[in-house]
Specification:
The complex is a heterodimer of chains A (298) and B (227).
Chain A (H helix, E strand, L loop, with lengths): L1 H41 L5 E8 H5 L2 H13 L1 E8 L1 H9 L5 E4 L2 H9 L3 E16 L10 H10 L4 E3 L5 H12 L10 E3 L4 H11 L3 E4 H10 L7 E4 L6 E9 L9 H11 L2 H9 L2 H4 L5 E2 L6
Parallel strand pairs in A: 1-2, 1-3, 5-6
Antiparallel strand pairs in A: 3-9, 4-7, 4-8, 4-9, 4-10
Chain B lengths: L1 H9 L1 H34 L5 H12 L3 H12 L14 H37 L4 H11 L1 H17 L2 H7 L9 H10 L4 H33 L1
The chains are: A alpha/beta (298), B mainly alpha (227).
């Protein structure tokens, strides 16, 4: 009998605590709703929604969340996006599912325009990849060829993602463009895991690896144990990742929001926003995650 | 269908995953069985102050989340950890250590429960027959052989199905520490489902065949005894 009572009591306590949890959440939701509504009232012209397809890196780094409210304030458009791989983002543009694409694969972008799906490509910014690894024996340089050649020749340990992600493809492409074969290095291993796990593994194995700067900065800042890796190679042209923005062609898909897309392109290439992009990340990581370069022919 | 299966089986990456899984599962089951059975039987045999706490801790560890065990082993064997100089991280040995940590409590906990039920009466019987301590112990193990076998099968099942701890400690390195389960997990993350399912089937077939062999061996043993 006592046990039964205890059980009833426990169930009551649990359901009560669950109920209170739910209430709290609801309250919070209402609060945020109110604040967003207030914000909306402040801004005058509400033009509607602009749908963009972009790559995961722009979302993961928090850049889009940082730019969205400014865009709304400046132009009145509500920017929404779907962060997928570059290939899929362009596909969404080809199907007319989005109004504008912001991706990083110049060759595919040019093909996208040549096939009549996009209007014109404008360079926006670039981020870069870096090679990280132990200080010895590879000396710090800005020439990727030297680093990768030395890794192969001396059979140094190298951890590759090996998961067919954007970074993995970039790495494979660099090996290919230098006409080096990583399979010749018995210490070249594939982690089959995400960027963070791969960096941790490289740290453990005193190995080299290719990473995007954003993940590297975040990882070396947040990890419990201080990383013993350092940037070995940065600044090589092969390591740059150029982002371009393209409006989806209104000739092909008359229903797309071409006005909004053009506003977005003009806005993101403007001096003011380019400066904002160049400042993003400096507070948190001490250096910028993206380098603006609108107006160049990259 | 047949061609497809053939192409999967001839894939070196997949074959190495099968090999790694097999080596890891067999060695971790063997080590955990020895440790777990010994510990379970000793725990039943001797009473000492704090025994109830030990039993309770054992039962808690039976449900230890594998990633927690994996993390603990990772911290122990990483380069800057206490066992760092042995460089066991990202090796099959490291994976076996994590597996032993997960499986041993399961086996010892089960053996303890079985032994607590059966051993006292066996002991009384052995005493009336005038058996000495070693003969009694052997009799208990013999009487419990079905349960012991069942515990080992359970342990083996746990070790081939493990993902989290193996991924953490082994690192899922292609051709070295990539097991079938971590391969499936990687394939899924790449959106490749058919090969994942195929590997899952291979994994189940492997478990089935192994268990079948064990069953046969056990039956033979029983028949021998009847003579």
């Amino acid at each position: 009998m006592k046990k039964k009572l205890l059980a009833v009591f426990l169930v009551a306590v649990m359901s009560f605590s669950l109920a209170t949890c739910g209430e709290k959440k609801e309250e919070k939701k209402e609060e945020t709703k109110e604040t967003t509504e207030e914000k909306k009232e402040e801004k005058a012209e509400d033009k509607g929604k602009l749908m963009m397809a972009t790559t995961t890196s722009t979302e993961d780094t928090g850049l889009l969340d940082y730019l969205k409210p400014v865009f709304k304030e400046d132009t009145g458009w509500d920017l929404e996006w779907s962060a997928v791989g570059t290939g899929e983002a362009l596909k969404m543009g080809e199907n007319g599912d989005v109004d504008v694409v912001l991706v990083h694969a110049k060759a595919s972008e040019e093909e996208f325009i040549a096939n009549g799906f996009g209007v014109e490509r404008f360079p926006v910014m670039y981020n870069d990849f870096v090679v990280v690894g132990p200080k010895e024996p590879v000396a710090k340089t800005d020439d990727i060829n030297t680093v990768f050649t030395q890794i192969i020749n001396d059979q140094l340990p190298f951890v590759s993602r090996g998961d067919d992600s954007g970074t993995d493809k970039k790495e494979k492409k660099i090996w290919e463009s230098l006409s080096l074969d990583p399979a010749a290095d018995p210490n070249y291993i594939e982690s089959g895991q995400g960027m963070g796990a791969t960096i941790t593994m490289a740290d453990e194995q005193k190995a080299y690896c290719l990473t995007d700067r954003g993940t590297w900065l975040k990882q070396s800042k947040d990890a419990t144990l201080e990383s013993e890796l350092e940037i070995i190679c940065e600044g090589d042209k092969n390591l740059l990742n150029q982002y371009g923005v393209i409006a989806v062609s209104p000739d092909k898909y008359p229903e797309v929001n071409n006005e909004g897309a053009n506003d977005f392109i003009e806005w993101i290439c403007s001096d003011k926003i380019q400066k904002l992009i160049g400042e993003y990340g400096t507070d948190e990581y001490g250096q910028a995650l993206f380098t603006p370069n609108a107006g160049t022919d990259s | 269908m047949w061609e497809w299966l053939k192409s999967i089986v001839s894939d070196t990456g997949i074959m190495s995953a099968v090999k790694v899984t097999f080596i890891m599962a067999v060695s971790s089951t063997a080590i955990s069985s020895v440790l777990g059975i010994l510990f379970g039987l000793l725990l039943e045999r001797f009473s000492f102050p704090g025994k109830r706490i030990v039993v309770r801790i054992n039962r808690t560890l039976m449900g230890v989340p594998p990633v927690v065990a994996g993390l603990v082993v990772y911290l122990l064997i990483m380069r800057r950890g206490p066992l760092g100089p042995l460089s066991l991280l990202f090796t099959i040995k490291g994976m076996v250590i994590a597996q032993v940590l997960i499986i041993t409590p399961i086996i010892s906990g089960m053996i303890y429960s079985y032994a607590r039920k059966a051993a006292p009466s066996i002991r009384v019987f052995a005493a009336t027959m005038g058996a000495d301590r070693w003969q009694t112990a052997r009799l208990i193990i013999r009487e419990l052989r079905k349960e012991i076998y069942f515990c080992m099968v359970t342990g083996f099942g746990r070790s081939i199905s493990e993902v989290g701890a193996v991924m953490l400690v082994g690192g899922n390195i292609k051709g070295r520490t990539r097991t079938m389960t971590t391969t499936i997990s990687l394939l899924k993350s790449q959106g490749i489902f058919t090969e994942g399912v195929a590997l899952g089937i291979v994994l189940l077939v492997m478990a089935f065949i192994l268990q079948w062999i064990c069953d046969l061996l056990q039956k033979e043993g029983e028949e021998d005894e009847n003579y």
